[in-house]
Design a protein that fits this description.
The chain is built from 2 helices and 25 strands. The chain is mainly beta. Strands 1, 2, 3, 4, 9, 14, 16, 19, 22, 23 and 24 form an 11-stranded antiparallel beta sheet that branches. Strands 10-11-12-13-25-21-20-15-18-17 form a 10-stranded antiparallel beta sheet. Strands 5-8 form a two-stranded antiparallel ribbon.
Length: 305
Amino acid sequence: MAIESLTFASLSGCLKLSNGTTDLIVSTAVGPRILFYGATGGQNHLGSFPDSSVKTALGSWKPYGGHRLWVWPELFPATYAPDNFPIQHEAHGDLSLTLHAPTDGASIEKQLRISLAPSGSKVQLHHTVTSHALWPIDIAVWAITIVASGTGIIPRVPFQTHDDYAPVTQPLALCAFTDLQDPRFTLGLKYILLRADPARANAQKIGLRNKEGWVAHLLGDELFVKSFAHENRAAYPDYGVNTEIYVEGAFQEIELLGPRRIVWPGESLTLSEEWHLFRGLKVDAGAPNLDQLDRAITPNIQSLP
């Protein structure tokens, strides 16, 4: 099936990849952005916020929605350098393409290569940032997915008793505004959940050093999983975490961070991840019971390559 051109979410110049069971829609008018991911004819797991914007000294930055490529650390205005400009794209057959953005106002060049599997829901993403700053900078690749309002799931390191294993196993990163008593949080022995709630406008965020290699988002009876490699000896951002979940009202992000490095002018960093979609889960998506959730998602997580 050939790559299709269309207008989507009021953005012209979008491109659709489909293998007949799973669809992806990307933008070439701005970005790089992935605007749609879901089953053919099904719901979009990516959120859309076309009217949101942040004013910066470099111009107005817009999230638009969907999946984007950012650079850690979150500094204003550099991180929010606008990407509201047309980008180049190169197709690699019918199910793969590369999106290439011009160097932004923070001297960062961004590239996203996307490959949809010939069947099923697997998508391979390779995020590359190249620094054109005039001096070395300490950065990490930051892959952020704005998702439709649902429940974010981060796995914890498998539980052991104090008698079995006493050392600390997993850093937890909290923001100044993080309130662990907020009912949107569920803190369990196997998972930490953070739900979006349109009725609660205040922001919440949490980060974890995720050694299990996946983070997920539950939307209705469908589970969207981002899988990745964890580097045991790497220095990760934000006090050593590699996965974060952010919510603010209906707005929700599932975030993946790569190792932080000192990057010299002209050098690049790449972060890779895979997407998977599982449907027909038997779970109460509104407020999942942890045991029920575990039974529902474990077979799917165990099937990941």
